[in-house]
Amino acid sequence: MLGLGKKDTLLLGIVAVLTILAPFIFNPFPVNSAMAQFNAGYPDLLQRFVIFGIFAIGYNLLFGLTGYLSFGHAAFLGVGSYAAVWMFKLLSMNVIPAIALSVLTAGLFAVLIGYISLRRSGIYFAILTLAFAQMTYALAYSVLTPITGGETGLQLALSDPRILDGAASAEGNLPVPGLFGLEMRDSVQLAVGDWLFTFSAGYYFSGLVMLLAFYLAIRIFRSPFGMMLRAIKSNQQRVNYTGLNARPYTLAAFVISGMYAGLAGGLMAAMDPLAGAERMYWTASGEVVLMTILGGVGTLIGPVLGAGLIKYMENIVSKINSDILHGWFAFMPDGLEDFIVSIIYPFIGKGWHLTLGIIFMLVVIFLPGGLVEGGQRIARLLRRRKSDKDEDAGQAKTEAAE
Amino acid sequence: MDAIILQILNGLDKGSAYALIALGLTLIFGTLGVVNFAHGALFMIGAFCAVTLSKLLNASYTTIDETKTDFLGNPLKVETPYVMDWFGPEAGAAIIDWSVPLAILFAIPIMILIGVIMERGLIKHFYARPHADQILVTFGLAIVLQEIIKYYFGANPIPTPAPDAFTGSFDFGQLIGFEANQIIYPYWRLVYFAFAAVVIGAVFAFLQFTTFGMVVRAGMSDRETVELLGININRRFTIMFGIAAAVAGLAGVMYVPINPPNYHMGMDFLVLSFVVVVVGGMGSLPGAVFAGFLLGILESFASMGAVIDVLPGINQIIIYLVAIVILLTRPRGLMGRKGVMEE
Amino acid sequence: MGILEVKNVNKRFGGLQALGDVNLSVAENSVHAIIGPNGAGKSTLLNCLVGKLIPDTGSVMFDGQSVLGRKPYEINQMGISRVFQTPEIFGDLSVIENMMIPCFAKRDGAFRMHAIESTATEQEIIDHAEQVLEELNMADKRHMQAAWMSRGDKRRLEIGMCLAQDPKLLLLDEPTAGMARADTNNTIDLLKQIRDEGKITIAIIEHDMHVVFSLAERITVLAQGRPLVEDTPENIKGHPKVREAYLGETA
Question: I want to staple B280 with a disulfide (CB 3.0 to 4.6 A). Which of B147, B287, C1, C100 is the partner?
Answer without folding.
Answer: B287
